[in-house]
Each structure stands twice: as C-alpha cells, then as structure tokens.
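Next comes the chain:
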Amino acid sequence: MPDPDLLTVRGLQKLYPVTKRGLFRSRQTGVIRAVDEISFSVARGQTLGLVGESGCGKSTTARSILHLIGASGGEVLLGGQDLLATLGGDDRKAELAMRRRVQYVFQDPYMSLNPRWTIAQTLSEPLRVHALLPPAAWRARVLELLELVGLEPHHADRYPHEFSGGQRQRVGIARALAVDPELLILDEPVSSLDVSVRAQILNLLARLQAELGLTYLFISHDLSSVRFLSTRVAVMYLGKIVEIADVDTLFEAPRHPYTRALLSAIPVPDPDRPAARNTLRGEIPSAMNMPAACRFHTRCPRASAVCAAHEPPMKTQRGHALACHHPLNEPAPAEPLGPES
C-alpha cells in the first residue's frame, strides 16, 4: 500500500553559529536555532498551512526542505525518497529528477523574475534545464502554461515590469508548474498583494490543486488565507512546532495558548461582536537568548514552574498534535508562573 504522505519531515534542524571577531581570529559565542528539530507530514493532494509570527522559522523551514539553504540535521522524505541527500549529492541527473517533483513559489513575484527576460523566456528556462521538450515545442508549452494560470497569449512577449503584482505571481506559479511537479512550496505567495488580488490568487491555487492533484506546503501569516486553502495547519513559535491539527479543529478549538493568541488577531467583520482579547505578555525573546524548556512560557498566561523546567513533548491524540503542559481544554495550573519569572 503506497504511503499516503507525499512529504515527511523528521527532526529538521537549521542552526546559525554566532561568532565574535577578534584581532587575530573569530570565536563562536552562541548559536541561533532557527529551526529546531521539527517534524510534520503532508498527505498527497492536501495542503498543510505553516503559520506563526515573523521570524519564527517558517521560510527557513521551506528553504531547508528544498536545500536552498543547507539543513543542519534531520530527514526529509518525498514519496519515501531522501530529498536532502539527493539534492545535496553529486548525481546531477537524480537532483534534477527530484527538483521536477517539488517546486517553490517565492514571496516577492517581482524579485523572483529576471527583469531582462520576457515571460516566454522565463517559462522556457525550466524546459531547457530539464530537457523536457524539444525547443520547437517550447512556445506551445508556454502558451499552455499562461492559459492555465489565467493569462493571455500576448503576455508571453512582455517583461515583468509591464505586469501588476498579481499577474507577476501568476507567472511565478506558471514557472513552477512548467515541470509538472507533485509538490509546491508556497512561501507567502499572497502577502504582497492587495486583498482583492489575493483572493484571485488563492482561488487560482485551489483550482490548480483540484485539476492537477497538487500537494501544497502553504506558508503564511495571513490566517484567513490559511483557513481557506489548508487541509491541516501547523503552528510554529521560535523554531518549534507547537500544534498541528485539521484546519477546522484548530480554528474552532485551539488547544495551545499561542495558537489562541494568533487566532485572536484575526479581524472580525462584525462591529457588534466583541473581538477576542490577546492575553500574551512581554515581547518575543531574542533568538540569541532562547528561554529554557518551553520557549513560550515567558509570554504564556497559563505558564507554571514545570513550563520553565521541562520542555513539553509533542503528543498526538486523534490526529491533533500538541506540545503544551497546560492545554486550553484542561484546568489552569494552580500556581501560575509570576511575571518576575
């Protein structure tokens, strides 16, 4: 029986050493744990939304998975094959075959496109690199890709500066689809777009997933977009995943205090409905000086002494994974951790 999960991440880690320059030599003074031994999976044909505050490690996770930056540890499997070993190996043919299976859509649709190339040149480049079609067939494939993402044939001979932000992002999506991938990593694909254009791109991604059977890893801080597109959601805080659940379960009944705080930031389009109150305290800790044990305990209203002493393990119950000593559906601790702690 085939594995239902297309992407499996186990213990992924990305560390950045911090060095101090001296007169004659540099010495390491610390380490930034941008991604700290996280694990998750994405089922075939579904979407996992990865959410969290800016700087929590979402984009670093995505770039580490695709070996755009080297991972410090862990394992990434794509359909049971070791993705990191293949992309970091010496076999160019195997690397290209793996990269055809997983593609990346970048956050900034302008910076990710070559301003000197027409759209036809941009969309032909993957066909050339991967030798998928003879050059005589490139133009027909380019026009097919443009139609797939809702652009016109005459757009093929224009340059990126002649398009709006939404149109440029459609080009970025078309470029990712040129090699017929199984998995798309979408790194904040709508964050730089207007609200109305954002909705068009999200609808396009949903249609493409239904038509082509694509699997998405969708990274965003826009929780409304995540709820619209995702099947499951993983919540990340300071390099750690703290909760994973089905999208409806997580939005309707979050169990981690940080997840509830994130959801309270969603605007409510009803003036008569009181907005949820954010109960977090303090500021996000420095990545150079992470709190011991549970990284969230310095801001959590439910934190107790055990939170400052022991890191909560990730436990899964009926498909809902959680790393918290005092979940929201359980009584609050008898002796909460004081602000001075």
In short: Residues 41-64+81-230 form a domain with the Rossmann fold fold (CATH 3.40.50.300). Residues 195-212 form the longest helix (18 residues). The mean pLDDT is 91. The chain has two domains: 41-64+81-230, 238-267+294-341.
